[in-house]
């Protein structure tokens, strides 16, 4: 059995984020060009007759919505480019260390790197909540009652996957497993 286990964490570079960033950008550009067309009295989109819109109030509102859409899309594209949330969890039985590494937004806190001694770990905690917004997460629970999330944010894992990951991790670290009844 290996003394080191590394779990990769997928960040912002998911297909759904590419989809939403592109969709919001195209919608925002459409709204912005319709608003601009009403101001210039010239059709900037060949498949619409937006030059006939009155700039106040319809055109200015379309321009505003378009600007907001473009800015939201820009935020999503930068989040994808910076790969916010990506990283890994390293469990090293040889050194007795657990490392949680994540990328954040640029700045002095761009890199989050937390280290814990395996001796300080009380258990592996699993939270499973079903419903409209299902929650399936694995936490590292320390003896001083802190709970450090180990799973990725976004699409919840399958029940069988989360159970298998949590039980194998608890066995690897030699700690108890909480939350699975």
TrEMBL record:
**Zinc: present as a keyword of the record?**
no
Q: Which chain regions cross the lipid bilayer?
A: 18-40, 60-84
Q: How does it sit in the membrane?
A: Multi-pass membrane protein
Q: Name one Pfam family in it.
A: Ycf4
**Major location (coarse):** membrane
Keywords on record:
Membrane, Photosynthesis, Plastid, Thylakoid, Transmembrane, Transmembrane helix
**Which InterPro entries does UniProt cross-reference here?**
PSI_Ycf4_assembly (IPR003359)
Q: Name one GO biological process term.
A: photosynthesis
Q: Where in the cell is it found?
A: Cellular thylakoid membrane; Plastid thylakoid membrane
Superkingdom per UniProt: Eukaryota
Q: Which GO terms describe its cellular component?
A: photosystem I; plastid thylakoid membrane
The free-text function statement in the UniProt record for this protein reads: Seems to be required for the assembly of the photosystem I complex.
Tell me its family.
Belongs to the Ycf4 family.
This chain belongs to the protein called: Photosystem I assembly protein Ycf4
This protein's encoding gene = ycf4
């Amino acid at each position: 059995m290996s003394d080191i286990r590394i779990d990769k964490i997928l960040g912002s570079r998911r297909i759904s984020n590419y989809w939403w960033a592109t969709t919001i950008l195209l919608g925002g550009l459409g709204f912005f060009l319709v608003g601009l067309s009403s101001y210039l009295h010239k059709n900037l989109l060949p498949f619409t007759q937006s030059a006939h819109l009155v700039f106040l109030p319809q055109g200015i509102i379309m321009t505003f919505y378009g600007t907001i859409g473009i800015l939201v899309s820009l935020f999503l594209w930068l989040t994808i480019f910076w790969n916010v949330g990506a990283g890994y969890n390293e469990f090293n039985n040889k050194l007795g260390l657990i490392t949680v590494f994540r990328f954040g937004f640029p700045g002095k806190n761009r890199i989050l790197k937390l280290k814990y001694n395996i001796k300080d770990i009380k258990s592996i905690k699993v939270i499973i909540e079903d419903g409209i917004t299902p929650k399936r997460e694995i936490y590292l629970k320390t003896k001083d009652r802190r709970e450090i999330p180990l799973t990725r944010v976004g699409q919840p894992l399958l029940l069988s996957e989360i159970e298998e990951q949590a039980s194998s991790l608890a066995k690897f670290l030699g700690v108890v497993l909480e939350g699975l009844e």
